[in-house]
Amino acid sequence: MTDKKWTNPGSHIFAVENGIVVVEYYHFGENVAYEYTVQVRLNQVGQAAMATALDLPDTPAPDKLLMVLKDRFSTYDAVRDFADAHAVPYELARDFQP
């Protein structure tokens, strides 16, 4: 469990990119040493596993699954913790900029 408390400016972003469901935390601001993003990226296999973990009757389209995730979880951490707890496969992407 990540159990993080984000105290610096940042935002949690839910999006669909080319059929991939993306949940992102973007960390930025004048008081941070560097900007970075971390993402949970769910491809079709991950989306199906997430739908099963959420007890959905079938795997919805990516934009519909995105709305379910956004309604149920408010943060990147909550989505990642749930995915980890339910063995949902996902790609973890990171990007750092000084």
Estimated radius of gyration: 14 Å
**Low confidence ranges:** 1-8
Count of individual beta strands: 4
User: In one word, what is the shape?
Assistant: elongated
Strand order of the largest sheet: 1-2-3-4
- What fraction of residues sit in β-strands? 25-35%
Structural class: alpha+beta
The SSE order reads EEEHHHE
Helix content: 25-40%
Q: How is the biggest beta sheet arranged?
A: 4 strands, antiparallel
How would you portray this structure in words?
It is a single chain. By secondary structure, the chain is an alpha+beta fold. The chain has three helices and four strands. Strands 1-2-3-4 form a four-stranded antiparallel beta sheet. The protein is elongated. It starts with 9 loop residues before the first strand and ends with a strand. Residues about 1-10 have low confidence and may be disordered.
